[in-house]
């Protein structure tokens, strides 16, 4: 976590060099500005504050872009784990710079693994991934004038699939799903001797690696999950974790043709069952009772990525303790304990049942609040909706608190009985 909070921000100093016109930079490049959080807002925004030299980043973009002399436009975009700057240069080319937030993963490892993963896939598959122009996973290295980890890439060609999807005909959508999974098939067909994340063999400075060849190795997992397993469903499998329309680029005139797949951060080699229930957003039906896209996904997955089919048919209760254990950092151990109990088929766990009822009530309440207020599951709200949503949130909480206090003692089985418990949720 970063220690610098948004309240410590300094106005961004205007660059006096002719790298870009002053009028183009009308945003603060360091602070998070894409939304607010209903819970722990200050901490959430502080975790996404990046201290770095924006001028140095602009200069780096120009230095690695032959034929470009100035930046004519710059757009700031933000996701859950990265800040992205899309630069348009005076030679009409576009370049993307991605800087990870402190919560994106382990320092140095996350960026190094993402770059190695992309290079590995570019050398062994035909999956269209934008070329990496420059990168650094060491924010304090003397050669890194930017002062932050970064990856600078070519901009993906084409347009985002989610922009074209609403206007695509049914046969185009089915063809597009088939094309996507023909590309993913190349990914799934890669074989690995161990779990973990990919790295360059010569550039890592940590132990415990498993060599793949002279150029690549498998090293520490970039997330908090790692286990060994011998069942068939645990075959080490490299898969694309974010198969959403916004990360897939297609041809403007032929949206069934894939031109680019982006955002490979945190891609890792996992047991096959970890990916077996991943459902892309393009399988959602657009008409009641009509889900030909889910069927196309099912068929494409079954025939092109059969390694995922086996785990889908197995008892999910056997996998849940493995697949959700990493969430104990965030949600405590009660859910993991429940999964273990369910797996053991034991009934004599009275104290646990009380805790689990409270946990379950909290999850339902958060889900219902998220739907009522139209927020993300973690309480994220777009800036233009912040005031209205915050006001509605306070009003709903007051009503819920009144209901809890009014019904105190009437239902002893209710997990939420007082204001303190309600606030903890």
UniProtKB/TrEMBL annotation:
Major location (coarse): mitochondrion
Keywords in alphabetical order: Mitochondrion, Transit peptide
PANTHER family: ALTERED INHERITANCE OF MITOCHONDRIA PROTEIN 9, MITOCHONDRIAL
Highest taxon listed in the record's lineage: Eukaryota
InterPro entries: Kinase-like_dom_sf (IPR011009), Mito_inheritance_9 (IPR051035)
Similarity annotation: Belongs to the AIM9 family.
GO CC annotations, alphabetized: mitochondrion
Location within or outside the cell: Mitochondrion
Name of the protein described by the UniProt record: Altered inheritance of mitochondria protein 9, mitochondrial
């Amino acid at each position: 976590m970063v220690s610098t909070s948004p309240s410590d921000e300094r106005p961004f100093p205007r660059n006096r060099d002719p790298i870009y016109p002053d009028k183009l930079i009308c945003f603060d490049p360091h602070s998070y500005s894409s939304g607010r959080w209903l819970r722990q807002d200050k901490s959430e925004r502080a975790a996404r504050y990046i201290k770095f030299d924006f001028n140095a980043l602009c200069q780096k973009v120009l230095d690695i872009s032959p034929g470009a002399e100035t930046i004519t436009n710059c757009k700031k975009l933000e996701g859950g784990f990265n800040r992205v700057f899309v630069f348009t240069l005076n030679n009409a080319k576009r370049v993307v710079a991605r800087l990870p937030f402190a919560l994106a993963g382990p320092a140095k490892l996350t960026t190094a693994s993402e770059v190695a993963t992309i290079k590995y896939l570019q050398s062994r598959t035909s999956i269209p991934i934008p070329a990496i122009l420059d990168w650094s996973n060491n924010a304090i290295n003397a050669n890194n004038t930017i002062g932050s980890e970064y990856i600078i890439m070519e901009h993906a060609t084409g347009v985002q699939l989610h922009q074209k999807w609403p206007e695509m005909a049914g046969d185009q959508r089915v063809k597009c799903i088939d094309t996507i999974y023909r590309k993913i098939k190349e990914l799934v067909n890669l074989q690995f001797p161990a779990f973990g994340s990919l790295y360059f063999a010569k550039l890592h400075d940590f132990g415990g690696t498993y060599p793949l060849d002279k150029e690549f190795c498998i090293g520490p997992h970039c997330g908090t999950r790692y286990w060994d397993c011998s069942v068939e469903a645990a075959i080490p499998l490299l898969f694309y974790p974010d198969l959403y329309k916004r990360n897939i680029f297609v041809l403007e005139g032929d949206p069934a043709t894939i031109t680019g797949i982006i955002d490979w951060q945190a891609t890792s080699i996992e047991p096959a069952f970890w990916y077996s229930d991943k459902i892309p957003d393009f399988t959602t039906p657009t008409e009641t009772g009509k889900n030909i896209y889910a069927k196309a996904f099912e068929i494409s997955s079954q025939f092109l990525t059969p390694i995922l089919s086996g785990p889908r048919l197995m008892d999910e209760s056997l996998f849940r303790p493995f697949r959700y254990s990493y969430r104990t950092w965030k949600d405590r151990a009660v859910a993991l304990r429940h999964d273990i109990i369910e797996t053991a088929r034991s009934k004599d766990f009275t104290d646990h049942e009380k805790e689990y009822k409270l946990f379950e009530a909290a999850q339902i309440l958060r889900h219902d609040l998220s739907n009522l207020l139209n927020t993300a599951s973690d309480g994220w709200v777009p800036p233009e909706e912040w005031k209205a949503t915050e006001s509605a949130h306070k009003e709903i909480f007051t009503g819920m608190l009144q209901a809890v206090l009014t019904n105190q003692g009437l239902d002893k089985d209710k997990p939420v009985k007082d204001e303190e418990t309600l606030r903890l949720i």
